Amino acid sequence: MTAKASSDGLMEEIVGLCKRRGFIFPxxxxxxxxxxxxxxxxxxxxxxxxxxxxxxxxxxxxxxDIEGLDSTxxxxxxxxxxxxxxxxxxxxMVDCRESKLRYRADQLFFAPVIVAxxxxxxxxxxxxxxxxxxxxxxxxxxxxxxxxxGTLEPIVLKDYTESKPEEYDLVPxxxxxxxxxxxxxxxxxxxxxxKVGPLADESAVAYLRPETAQGIFANYKNIxxxxxxxxxxxxxxxxxxxxxxxxxxxxIFRSREFEQMEIEYFISPSADWKTLHREWIDTCIDWLxxxxxxxxxxxxxxxxEDKLAFYSRATTDLMFQFPHGExxxxxxxxxxxxDLMQHQKHSGKSMTIFDEASKEKFVxxxxxxxLGVDRTLLAVLTxxxxxxxxxxxxxxxxxxxxxxFSPKIAPxxxxxxxxxxxxxxxxxxxxxLYKKLQRRWNVFYDASGAIGRRYRRQDEIGTxxxxxxxxxxxxxxxxxxxxxxxxxxxRRVTEDELIQFLEEQIDG
Length: 508
Ligand code: GAP
Hints:
By secondary structure, this protein is of the alpha+beta class. It has helices spanning 7-20, 42-61, 77-82, 85-88, 131-145, 213-226, 273-290, 338-347, 373-384, 424-438, 451-461, 471-475, 495-507; strands spanning 2-3, 24-26, 38-40, 66-69, 90-95, 102-104, 108-115, 118-126, 158-159, 186-189, 193-195, 205-207, 233-242, 257-267, 298-302, 314-322, 325-336, 353-355, 360-362, 365-372, 385-391, 397-403, 414-418, 443-445, 465-469, 480-484, 490-493. α2 (42-61) crosses α9. It starts with a strand and ends with a helix. The model has no long low-confidence stretch (mean pLDDT 95).
């Protein structure tokens, strides 16, 4: 029997496992942590690197039409003026003057409580899967306390960006439950500022990049001029991004320092962008499935035309079933020529390209698949986290916790066990195999405890293969036992068969 934890508890269980087994720690934990920042421990950094390497390999190395880039985190501040981030990259926020808590206005929901046609109060609730239920219960309480007779009208929640000035003093703060302490929604800038150089005045202000994409646009001309690219082609970049999120939450889902894997795919203005967009969406879905996400947990959220930014032709977000609900994982946007045109205007440098095939000169349009490394890692952990029952050493069914990572991204690829730790021949042979495999993959050697316990420790960190060296190995045919993490099936293989199998599973 296989089961996920209930979705309520799943996030807590994942956070607990990540801390216990050294995947992810709260940043600055010895000082009480730092909201919105996380550190990756020994297993976390391996998983993270494997996700990035798989993406780079599939999107850059195995494609002829995509080049790589690594641009700086701090760039000329004019880039952020041209891109529109300095003026427009903000979220509406609302403060509770009493509790000093700050909410994103679009994540704070409220509704009037109307009984027999009369508004007798307001309810408010912070966005969550149970928000309707919570609001209805609060409304029923208000009605009871007011001893008001009559029918309670349905509670219709709106987010706080839709509040009217006359409602600011009536909506209760979710923190105190009392009205009168919420401010009007105000725009809150999301870019982190810093100062570059010895001057401390306004001219020294620079920004930590909130996306890697602008580094690609800023280098587009360099790559066109120095590479052998021809339309259509892409530029890919993996790197840190920083956003002063008002409400970082849901573990690493929304943090203030995170990493992105972005591609700008440059196409002719006359290209069939709808087909290319569709192809990119499919490529992205296939990639997510290739690293182990179940296809049925991925869906598409097509942004309605009237909600698109003025420069955008279409955006589809790939959504994933995270423990806290279905949320955006990967945005695939058609941004037209907006960014390159803006940089052409602000820098005075031409962004046109000559297309040999059509003999035309133009500023290309772009399709932008933009994915967060940390969000992918959370999706991978969510999909992998499994509780099932397997027989122990004595054949008795036992509960186990197992991370069913794809071998491609599993932090540890295989664990090597000598059957007994006090038999020199077994230990020697196991050590030799361990050293050999270690030259190619991240493998683990464990000689302590009953073999079943050793398997279980590896199951919990998602090691797909267990390799045991026993007496048959040293006395008979040299074969080893290969155990599959998910089925727990064991079979004997020669060393050559083992290596070929690992190659197919890990590098394939
Ligand atoms: N260049 C386009 C861009 O940055 P975005 O939708 O703001 O678009 C793209 O971000 C992806 O980056 C998201 O789909 C998500 O995976 C990731 N991301 C964005 N903000 C994040 C945050 N605060 N924490 C973690 N990941 C984030």
